[in-house]
Amino acid sequence: MSKRIRRHRQPIGQPEEGDPGGYWLPREASGVLLVSADPYLQEEAKRIVAAAGGTLRTAEGVSEAVHGWDSADVVLVGSDVRELPPRRRAPSVLLGKASDGDGLWRMAAALGAERVAVLPEAASWLAEHLTMSGSPDPGGTVTGIVGGCGGAGASTAAIWLAQAAASQGVSTLLIDGDPWGGGLEFAVTDEPVPGLRWPDFQESRGSMDPVQFRDSLPVAGGFTYLSWPGTREPVQSPDAGAIAAIMDAARRAFELTLVDLGRSSEGVGRLSWDCDNLLLLTTAHLRSAVASARILDELPPVDTGLLVRGSNASQVQPTFIAESLGIPLVGVVPEVRGVAAGTELGRLLELGRRKDISRLTGSVLELHGAHR
Fold this sequence. Notes:
Blueprint: E1 31-35, H1 39-51, E2 55-59, H2 62-69, E3 74-78, E4 93-97, H3 103-111, E5 115-119, H4 123-132, E6 141-147, H5 154-167, E7 172-176, H6 185-188, H7 210-215, E8 219-220, E9 223-226, H8 240-253, E10 256-260, H9 265-269, E11 277-283, H10 286-296, E12 303-309, H11 318-325, E13 329-333, H12 339-345, H13 348-351, H14 355-367
Parallel strand pairs: 1-2, 1-3, 3-4, 4-5, 6-10, 6-11, 7-9, 7-10, 11-12, 12-13
Antiparallel strand pairs: 8-9
Helix pairs in contact: 1-4, 5-14
């Protein structure tokens, strides 16, 4: 399997009905280059850039765009473009239409586009993105943790990593990315903690104030967390627009956001595309390695490191699994007695203080660049 390439792409949500510029305030004009011969994309980009207070230059082909490519604040490439000029930076956003379907994501990977915007649904997001493009602060790092097989312990690892980052003085948010996981909060604490949960953000759109967002969430173990509620009551998942607003606020509010992606379509299919890098956790067994290879193919092509849970007596060596998957091994998670009971009783943080766990989490945070 080929080595994973560092690229960041973010799925864009649905705007509210009405004025697509209703949730943002232009802050600073941007010089925007659009490379596309598609009349619809040209008109949409012209309208959005003007509303954002920026200036737009349009080039219908790559050869025409070469001279202004690297000097533009933002480079937009239409879905009609199939190749880029040599030795130029990757485009900021790939613009497409709903009719382009899933092929947009494959095209974004091929072109190296950082993000994808489907128009007209993403008009509001794109306008806001353009107003923020000149900001010197790109926000914090978002790292996703995904289990390569069921029961690998990804949620446990995510909690321990959040605990370790917070202990180092890093402002940290842990996001429960699996609505079918029963509520990550049960493993974090054995007491009710005031704060908002996922369903409380169903109506969120556009920009949220990062300070208000941070202060609205519960805190345990020194880090903030956003969990699915631990109740039997049916809950409605926020749509793509709300998820985009939450992830944007998380990036601006915290130095490090750790996302426990789970293995559902909500986590892997949506939230993984918001991550700057990923950690894939598996066990040292052949079936687990095979399952990990399959889920790896479903993940976005960003930097991905491997964590293997096992011991010296494990059936398959962690280094062999890493070589087979084509991703670097960043740590071996020791088998810890009491994890199952700690999860049930909300006491995983107590186990996270063990020296062997602290050494592992500190090494992972440093080696994988989970905090830059």
